[in-house]
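name: query_chain
kind: protein
chains: 1
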Amino acid sequence: MATSIEADDDIPKLSASTLAVLGDFYSEREHNEKRFEDLKVEMEQQQPKTPLSMDMFSEDWNASQFWYSDETATTLAEQLLDGATAETKIAIVSAPSVFVQLKNLLASQHKTPKVTLLEFDQRFSVFREFVRYDFQSPIKLPGEMKGTYDRVLCDPPFLSTDCQTKAALTVRWLSKASAPEPQNAGPQWIACTGERMEGLIHKLYPGIKTTTFQPRHTQDRLSNDFRCYANFDCQIWKLGK
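structure:
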């Protein structure tokens, strides 16, 4: 029969370096959780501090949450805001990291467009622009949102035909109809998703094409090749095939 000393010897022991890494991890998580609680108070008092950061919202990989890098999120937010006025309506579907950077950009502007974040993750309800969204019920949304948005960006959470199709239905339901006047070319669409969805994306969004811009995720955690699709040119990208 093994003695208690021998039994203790059988228990795996972590090295000092591993313990240090774990300590840093838990310390950072605790720090970000406190920042999130502070953010909730700030938003309740309508006194948000900028810049906002996605560090306050940990990724849930089981829910297919992979945040864009700050550079990519800012680039996409800038395109949504380019030329926008106080009358412009912008919807961001399942891309909270773009929304956060857009909020940062708007902090210095006086006339701001109306922005809506459609998102499943209830944590983002700290923002007044939040509307809960589940792609499984693509048009189960407030009726007054239908056909009212000038610009819509969507990043469907899953690389499946079902998810992509339902997300595209949401985008088209939200978007204003194209007007016959030449000066109004209709709503602007940006869809960011995996490269292997390219053929399907071209079918789901009339007039959309693959752009030359390639989105990046934080620390390049996502292994799938990612692409940006749009129905308009801009300084950042050109439309391809």
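note: The chain has six helices and seven strands.
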